[in-house]
């Protein structure tokens, strides 16, 4: 039975896809069987991992029932991927039948024994796709940038989490808030950290001890179809993500050592 982790924030530009690909690659390097699910119509996760997202079947085909999930899952160097593209933007209007909140959960049930971890990347919105990701998930990771608008996005997620817990998925919990692009020398960064810790208490969670710094490798890695861990394994960003992985794997009792090389 796989552990399903959703990466979420309704604010864009906070590092959701970078976080998702780094977690996929890091878990794979530690010996885990990993599936990445791209629920963003922009298709960023699949694109960043080197897939031709415009010429392949996608999660949209799976959700609407025209393809079996095993037909659509595609291999990458960072683990298997259920890709997405712009066609998924029709989901809000097209998936309107009763039970639409469980579409992704039901699809993943077919492969949940094939993987140790499923990492879901979500769009910068609170819509039917995001709700599907929450209903399917065991835990949420909320990346945010050290800026006020990003903090507001985190605060607004709470109502959606409460609704999903109450109506669809009582086991859902927030694993933590992740600070991306963090620089402790900046006063605003430290102030946002203090506010993030207050919001974390309201969500009955924590701010991860691991804080991911900025680095040029984050921008360069997608052009090479790699995660930042593979593209620049010695970079400060990769080191930060490995520390985050330590926190997450301890949470779930997954203690396999990182792969060498």
Task: Record the SSE blueprint.
Blueprint: E1 3-7, H1 16-29, E2 34-38, H2 44-48, H3 59-63, H4 69-72, E3 80-82, H5 91-94, H6 103-108, E4 117-121, H7 128-136, E5 139-144, H8 148-167, E6 173-179, H9 187-202, H10 216-220, H11 228-231, H12 236-251
Parallel strand pairs: 1-4, 1-5, 2-3, 2-4, 5-6
Helix pairs in contact: 1-12, 8-9
Task: Describe this structure as you would to a colleague.
With 261 residues, the chain is an alpha/beta fold. 41% of the residues lie in helices and 12% in strands. The chain is built from 12 helices and 6 strands. The protein has helices spanning 16-29, 44-48, 59-63, 69-72, 91-94, 103-108, 128-136, 148-167, 187-202, 216-220, 228-231, 236-251; strands at residues 3-7, 34-38, 80-82, 117-121, 139-144, 173-179. Strands 3-2-4-1-5-6 form a 6-stranded parallel sheet, with helices on both faces. The chain is globular and about 50 Å long.
Radius of gyration: 17 Å
Distance between the termini: 29 Å
**What's the overall geometry?**
globular
Strand content: 5-15%
Strands of the biggest beta sheet: in what spatial order?
3-2-4-1-5-6
Q: Determine the fraction of residues in helical runs and give it as a percent range.
A: 40-55%
| Mean of pLDDT | 91
SSE pattern: EHEHHHEHHEHEHEHHHH
**Total DSSP helices:** 12
Largest sheet: 6 strands, parallel
Quick one: how many beta strands? 6
List low-pLDDT spans: none
Class from secondary-structure proportions: alpha/beta
Highlighted features:
261 residues; single chain
